[in-house]
Amino acid sequence: MNRIISTLFLFLSTITFAQTWSNDVAPIFYNKCAQCHHPGGISATSLTTFNEVSPMANAINTYITNDEMPPWPPNNNYQQYVHDRALSSTDKTTILNWIANGTLEGNSANTPPPPVFNNGALLGAGDLEVRIPTYTSKAQIGHDDYACFSIPSGLTANRVIKSVEIIPGNRQIVHHALIYLDPTGNELTDSIGGDCSSPALQTTTLIAGYTPGATPMTLPAVAPLKLGIPITSGSNIYFAMHYPAGSFGEQDSTKVIFHFYPINETGIRQVYAAPIIENWNFTLPPNVVTTVNGSYPAGNAGLTNNVSILSVFPHMHLVGKDIKSFAITPATDTVKFIDIQKWDFHWQDFYFFKHMPYLPIGTTIKAVGHYDNTTSNINNPNNPPITVYPGLNTTDEMFLVYFHYMLHQAGDENYDMEALMTAEVNNLLKDENANGVSIYPNPSSNEFSINFEGKKGDKYSVIIYDTQGKIVSTVADKLISENTHITATWDGNTFQGETAKKGVYFVSINLNGTFLSKRIIKN
Ligand code: HEC
Question: Cα 485 from chain centroid?
């Protein structure tokens, strides 16, 4: 009986209280879409307000139903990663129901304040900045432009990198940027043909990548876990840039900012980045799907060291269909790295593991992928299809899986990598945009007092976001001001009641429909 009543109540409540933008939907868009869909973001379409989102309802419905937005190729049931972008099934249902019920706005005074985005350098000036010259995209309609730049770093001493921030010069046309270190300084710039996808020398190593919505690579850099990537004096920085079709005539000058450990810093564990899985020996005949495998090391003995894996980066070109990578330990356990069921050349990334997988001596690393060289692959560069071979051009194919890894130490698997990487986002820009909000102390290691001026009777909400636009804490939820001076206190905790990690946050305020914001630093 009880169940019948509560079912009935649930049913009635869905009818009477249909989901609204202000109460249910806005927080999902802030969390999962706004990082790319905001003014100045990668997408030309801003999706942060009701007036921006509601006219796009049909398109949003299609993209979400087909799992095309947010772009997140890895299968989260296989492995978990730092900075996961996927929509939960509850969020998905909420958005789709909201659209089906006619995209109601609700009371705009209840709309939570939106996240704040920073299109400049998040981590500050750093120790070395290397920039490509201003480049004008040659991507005509239907043709993407791939250009490579080899730029001297000017380094006169060997250093160890702890963070890398890639900042696109023009967020709207940089689809991805891959950053390599060339210790020889001999790589060449290739910006003529529009199809340069990777460097020419085996000694040049990929260390970091930018895709829209990505955060800087911040390796944990405080004891007990100090990680670094060495860079030698005289190295070149090699940029592999991808400008999508339709960006013709637009200009870009992407830069990369490196943060180094102090010279002579001790206790740093070296991180290696390498294409551990490589297969250059396959043929993809036309009109069929072909399976390609990779395995490391060769032979049956397996790895000769115990290894901890930080990240995985699978790489194929346009004929790629799916790819999976895992390892088999001597005890025949499977260690899962990544499963991409629908390969998308446009969304490639280093996926950092929430917890580092451990590979004991004797383990073999494997990958298996499929290539769809038929006409049903809409990305197939050839119509009719022709035989495709491995090679460096985008119209050739590749089968690579890169990893960031290091020699294992006891306890590596227990580190919370998301917490440690976020904690590194710390030594940062001063606040330029105070907006009438004053916060003290700032930085602070526990409480923040957030102060702004309004009128008696003003309605206000105060939300703390992280730099990914995710809600950390709701400090004030639709309160009515009793005074002209309004104070809200953030206790430095997340809404789950845990101490918020060290790093940069944004305070965002809705004061009677006016949005105010300010950056704060927790340390
Ligand atoms: C990681 C970045 C990223 C995230 C996160 C993201 N998008 Fe997108 N979205 C893009 C890019 C890039 C495009 C390509 C078209 C463009 O340049 O506008 C796009 C296109 C779209 C389009 C088509 C736009 C148009 O003008 O036709 C819609 C609709 C869309 N996204 C909805 C969403 C929704 C809804 C979410 C959140 C649930 C979301 N996106 C999350 C990057 C992103």
Answer: 39
